[in-house]
Amino acid sequence: MGSAGSAQLPADEAAIQGYSLRNAAGMTVRFLDYGATITAINVPDRAGRTANVVLGYGSAAEYRAKNVKNRFGATIGRYAGRIANARFSLDGQTYRLTPNSGVHALHGGAAPGLDTRRWHVRRFREGAIDAATLTLLSPDADQGFPGELTVTITYRLLPDNALRIDYAARTTRPTVLNLTNHSYFNLAGHGSVTAQRLRIAATRWVETDSDGIPTGRLAPVAHTPLDFRTEHAIGERINHKGPPMSGPGGYNHAWAVAPAMRASPRPVLWMRDPASGRTLRVDTTEPSVQLYTGDYIDGLDVDAKGRPIRPRDGIAIEPQGLADAPNRPSFPSTRLNPGQEFRSTTIYRFGADGRS
């Protein structure tokens, strides 16, 4: 466990600091001040055996050197998801970002983003809750976005084996903002997630073109491999050929789970591993959840135990606003004005059942 790092300190000027949150039920969450990155979530299975259920590297140096590629556990911003042609207009002014996904901007554009910055960390407790608040000042024009942005993220490890993440932000100029965490989950702790089972409370998905840019249509999930209204194994339809599956295959899609940002988090996704019994329920205030089975992962990196990290070894679960919303007036707005406070909450609730 380290002391707090400076929010503005370049990554190569001081050692990255690691922190741990613990509860009495045997769950541990580890994170870095670099990128506000979650590096491990250790939870018990039905027999009480604990395993890390998120993908990641074995050292802070690897996160600094490699994580811009896969963003294991990182905080994503200023804008999670894609923005078409790396530009948007606000109040008649066009803002240009740096493309990093063809001609488009992904996760705010080219580095450095919020996932490669040093955050200031303050540890605290609320009774039985172990917690930490991370703060970052993103200057005006950072990544091309207007406004000086003050972002705070609070990690709370609850007594019932839930990790609660609260996001807050304020700006000095009108801007757009979309924050999420990019952890890849594997409830077995290792190996392919394709046998693990998933349910999503969504009747529509965010339809995209071949570049992953939303078309503006929220298309029905019915009669597609994206229909998880009832539980299915992740791998049951993952190799479907043709729309809506594209690219290298696998899932890299957003489900519309609410018509707009909610005032309080509600359950939207359930995942379970029949072998270990571990379960995950995701509650969020966000209007969409992006899922990604890591099919672009190149398999060259290894985890903390020296095991290769391969495509489909985890599934990223990213509650967020809709991609390209600044260019899509019909989508829930991601605009933030001076005097307003952005607030968002996501809760990852872990458990274990006896089913197989």
How would you describe this protein?
- This protein starts with 17 loop residues before the first strand and ends with a strand.
- It has one helix at about 60-70; strands spanning about 20, 30, 40-45, 50, 75, 80-85, 85-90, 95, 105, 120-125, 130-140, 150-160, 160-170, 175, 180, 185, 195-200, 205-210, 215-220, 230-235, 250-255, 265-270, 280-285, 290, 315-320, 335, 340-350.
- A hairpin with a 5-residue loop joins strand 22 (about 265-270) and strand 23.
- The protein is mainly β and about 350 residues long.
- The strands form seven sheets. A nine-stranded antiparallel sheet has the order 10-11-12-13-27-23-22-17-20, with no helix packed on it.
- Helices cover about 5% and strands about 40% of the residues.
Structural class: mainly beta
Sheet of most strands: 9 strands, antiparallel
Roughly how much helix do the residues carry, as a percent range?
under 10%
**Oligomeric assembly:** single chain
Number of helices: 1
> Which strand order does the major sheet show?
10-11-12-13-27-23-22-17-20
Percent of sequence in beta strands: 35-45%
Question: Mean pLDDT, rounded to whole units?
Answer: 94
Uncertain residue ranges: 1-13
Could you give the distance between the termini? Answer: 37 Å
Gyration radius, to the nearest Å? 19 Å
Order of helices and strands: EEEEHEEEEEEEEEEEEEEEEEEEEEEE
Morphology: globular
Number of strands: 27
